[in-house]
Every structure is written in structure tokens, then in C-alpha cells.
From TrEMBL:
One of its GO terms (molecular function) is peptidyl-tRNA hydrolase activity. GO terms for biological process: mitochondrial translational termination. It comes from Papilio xuthus (Asian swallowtail butterfly). Its EC number is 3.1.1.29. This is Large ribosomal subunit protein mL62. Belongs to the prokaryotic/mitochondrial release factor family. Mitochondrion-specific ribosomal protein mL62 subfamily. Keywords: Hydrolase. The lineage of its organism: Eukaryota, Metazoa, Ecdysozoa, Arthropoda, Hexapoda.
Length: 188
């Protein structure tokens, strides 16, 4: 009888035991829900790097490729999508440039889709998608400067010089080939 009482208290203890460093103890009010912190963008900047998570459509699916049972059990592939035409958090100039640069990546409905399944972690794949999106937006935000007329003239002169040198080299090689030929009847 004493052994069963010991066994029942032992099982109760193991089921009720929580470590002092468990997540519930360290962060009692936390959740795994993704939220965007409050942010007021600078009106002078076209893009500050801030992407509102509530305006994005994020889906998770099973990843392809090797990985054993982990591939079948865990949905780590991330599809991040948003409708480019309705993205009010983007500057209109950036939207136009994104459409110009990445128009082929748009779906028929007008969604820009970014995928990542590079790692076995859902959070790292989501971070990878967000980084890809930031890089795309930053590339679109950069305005390409037109070179000065002096620089354009210098470039044109260099191209002409290179073309002249190439033709001169071809003529010299043709002359050397001509010298290696045996003389013909007309030459004698």
C-alpha cells in the first residue's frame, strides 16, 4: 500500500512539475502571435524599412526537398503575399518601380508573392521573406543618377579608342597570317 501511495505522488509530481526557466514562467503574458509594433514613419523618407505585418498575407506549407520526417510533419515553407496596388504603406514611386522591376512575379490577381523554404525553421523562413521584401523595396527606392555630360563623353571616347585598337590588332594579325602564306603565282 505504501508503494502505491509513493507511486501516485511521484506521478503527480512529474505531471505538475514546471521548471523555473520554462517559457510560461519567464514570459507569463506572451504569445506566439506575430504583431507589428506601433510605428510612425518619417514623411521625408520613401521607405524606412518598416513593414506592417497586418497588411501582409502569410501562409505556411510543407516544404519540399530532403529532410526526413520533419518535412512531412512541420510546415516551414513561408509564402508572403500582398496586393501591390492596395499597399498604402508604400510610396507611390516605389510601387511603380516595384511593378517595373518585379512585374513578372505578380500573380493574375496582382499579388506580389515571396517564398522561402531555405531553412527548417518557420520563423527563419519568415525573416528571410521579410528581408527579401525589404531588399526589393530598397532596390526600387534607389534612383539611378544620370552621368554628367563630361563623363558620358569620356566613356564614348574610351569605347572609340577600344574599337580602334581592336581593329588595329585584327589588321596586324591578318598581316602576320598573310606573311606565313607561301607565295602565289601572281606574287612571283
Amino acid at each position: 500500500m505504501a508503494s502505491t501511495a509513493f507511486y501516485s505522488t511521484l506521478t503527480k509530481r512529474t505531471m505538475a512539475y514546471k521548471s523555473a526557466i520554462s517559457l510560461e514562467t519567464l514570459y507569463p503574458n506572451s504569445s506566439l502571435k506575430l504583431t507589428t509594433p506601433s510605428f510612425t514613419p518619417d514623411p521625408k523618407e520613401k521607405f524606412s524599412g518598416f513593414i506592417p505585418m497586418e497588411k501582409l498575407d502569410i501562409t505556411y506549407s510543407a516544404s519540399s526537398g530532403p529532410g526526413g520526417q520533419n518535412v512531412n510533419k512541420v510546415h516551414t515553407k513561408v509564402d508572403l503575399r500582398f496586393k501591390l496596388s492596395e499597399a498604402d504603406w508604400l510610396h507611390p514611386d516605389i510601387k511603380e518601380k516595384l511593378l517595373e522591376l518585379h512585374g513578372k512575379k505578380l500573380s493574375k490577381e496582382g499579388y506580389l508573392i515571396i517564398r522561402s523554404d531555405t531553412t527548417r525553421s518557420q520563423q527563419l523562413n519568415l525573416a528571410d521573406c521579410l528581408q527579401k521584401l525589404r531588399n526589393m523595396i530598397r532596390d526600387a527606392a534607389v534612383t539611378k543618377r544620370e552621368p554628367a555630360p563630361e563623363t558620358q563623353e569620356r566613356i564614348r571616347q574610351r569605347h572609340l579608342k577600344a574599337a580602334r585598337l581592336r581593329v588595329a590588332q585584327k589588321r596586324e594579325e591578318a598581316h602576320h597570317r598573310e606573311l606565313r602564306r607561301p607565295p602565289t603565282v601572281v606574287d612571283l
